[in-house]
Amino acid sequence: MTSGGATPAPTIFGGKSKIMAVIGDEDTVTGFLLGGIGELHAKTRKPNFLIVDKNTKASDIDDTFKSFLNRDDIGIILISQYIAEMIRGTVEGHDKNVPAVLEIPSKEHPYDPSKDSILRRARGMFSIEDFK
């Protein structure tokens, strides 16, 4: 109960709080960590982020992304778009609402909306007639 007797509004997460996860280059991930999103899973002690560099294998990115999809504490996965391109099949294969997957730009790689599979899917849901 909140003060004044009002009941809290329902959430899409069924009343459970969720965290964000991030996959990106060092600058991108560091920025989000400085913003306070860094967490360790309560049971596995695995972090909710992956720093990708030139030595990171696509299979490691894919495995981490899949592990984030399966974690019950993650509600949003932020992934640098150029990294999402490395595992495009896995990203496009995710068709659930939660966790939401958002492709973001990085310092060295600008955002290209034509490559964003989630945005393409969202555009297909509406027609121009829906907004008249």
From TrEMBL:
The keyword Ion transport applies. Pfam families: ATP-synt_F. One of its GO terms (cellular component) is proton-transporting V-type ATPase, V1 domain. Keywords: Hydrogen ion transport, Ion transport, Transport. InterPro entries: ATPase_V1-cplx_f_g_su (IPR008218), ATPase_V1-cplx_fsu_euk (IPR005772), ATPase_V1_fsu_sf (IPR036906). GO terms for molecular function: proton-transporting ATPase activity, rotational mechanism. It comes from the Eukaryota. Gene3D superfamilies: ATPase, V1 complex, subunit F (3.40.50.10580). V-ATPase is a heteromultimeric enzyme made up of two complexes: the ATP-hydrolytic V1 complex and the proton translocation V0 complex. PANTHER family: V-TYPE PROTON ATPASE SUBUNIT F, VACUOLAR ATP SYNTHASE SUBUNIT F. Belongs to the V-ATPase F subunit family. Subunit of the V1 complex of vacuolar(H+)-ATPase (V-ATPase), a multisubunit enzyme composed of a peripheral complex (V1) that hydrolyzes ATP and a membrane integral complex (V0) that translocates protons. V-ATPase is responsible for acidifying and maintaining the pH of intracellular compartments. NCBIfam families: V_ATP_synt_F. This is V-type proton ATPase subunit F. The lineage of its organism: Eukaryota, Metazoa, Spiralia, Gnathifera, Rotifera.
